[in-house]
Write a structure and sequence with these properties.
The protein has 228 residues and is mainly alpha-helical. The protein has a single domain, classed as Arp2/3 complex 21 kDa subunit ARPC3. 74% of the residues lie in helices and 2% in strands. A two-stranded antiparallel ribbon has the order 1-2. It is globular and about 55 Å long. The chain starts with 9 loop residues before the first helix and ends with a helix.
């Protein structure tokens, strides 16, 4: 979903750049509450993992391929604010060193693949946590659903941006069907990778997963009540 230079006009690119800058600024403040002796080392590993996995493409359909976006995964592992910072660093490195996504489209890519996927993935995850049993075994499935939903939503947001500032006249119906349809399939791959990654860490060190902390806090409270 990396948007290259020239897909969106200058005003739209400038607007998404401003939104991205504002999002990163808010994330910098929010990360102060999320980063601790457990989250800080993991944040670097998360950014490295997402950077590496985004380089690997898997076939989807009709000659198209997809790759992990990672916004939901980052948010659940290290928190939404820190997750957005990790994603922004990944896109900046890809843009400057690998020409993956244009410089003028950097803000657009941060908004689509960073801000949207982080926010949507985290909100879906937390919504499921509110209704599912408070068990560690539910963390990975909830994370997978958050990842699954975040990808087509990001694709749909791209369609909205293109409707506002697209530089080529493309029927929006066809663009919507292509983008959301293909990225719904990509979302399945995203969900599988997220489930495996989160599930593997929860199985050995649940305290390292930011999204599992509320479950762990509930378990600690239950243990104390029983002991009393």
């Amino acid at each position: 979903m990396h948007v290259p230079d020239g897909f969106l006009d200058a005003p739209t690119s400038m607007a998404t750049g401003a939104v991205a800058a504002a999002g990163v600024a808010v994330a910098l403040r929010g990360a102060k509450k999320e980063l601790d002796d457990r989250t800080a080392p993991l944040a670097g590993l998360v950014a490295t993992f997402i950077f590496a996995t985004q380089m690997l493409n898997f076939p989807v359909a009709a000659g198209t391929s997809g790759h992990l976006l990672g916004g939901a995964l980052a948010a659940i592992l290290v928190g939404p604010a820190t997750g957005l910072l990790c994603m922004s660093v990944v896109f900046l490195v890809q843009c400057l060193l690998f020409a993956d996504g244009g410089i003028t489209a950097l803000g657009t890519n941060i908004v689509l693949m960073g801000l949207v996927t982080v926010v949507v993935g985290w909100l879906v995850f937390r919504g499921l946590q509110a209704v599912l049993p408070k068990r560690l075994s539910m963390v990975a499935p909830a994370a997978a659903v958050g990842a699954l939903v975040s990808v087509p939503v990001a694709a749909f947001v791209f369609v909205l941006l293109y409707a506002v500032g697209g530089t080529v006249d493309i029927p929006l119906g066809s663009l919507t069907a292509a983008m959301v349809g293909v990225h719904s399939l990509i979302g399945i791959g995203e969900a599988v990778i997220t489930f495996l990654a989160v599930g593997s860490i929860v199985a050995v060190r649940p305290d390292l997963v930011y999204g599992a902390r509320r479950v762990l806090a509930t378990r600690d409270l239950e243990v104390r009540e029983v002991a009393a």
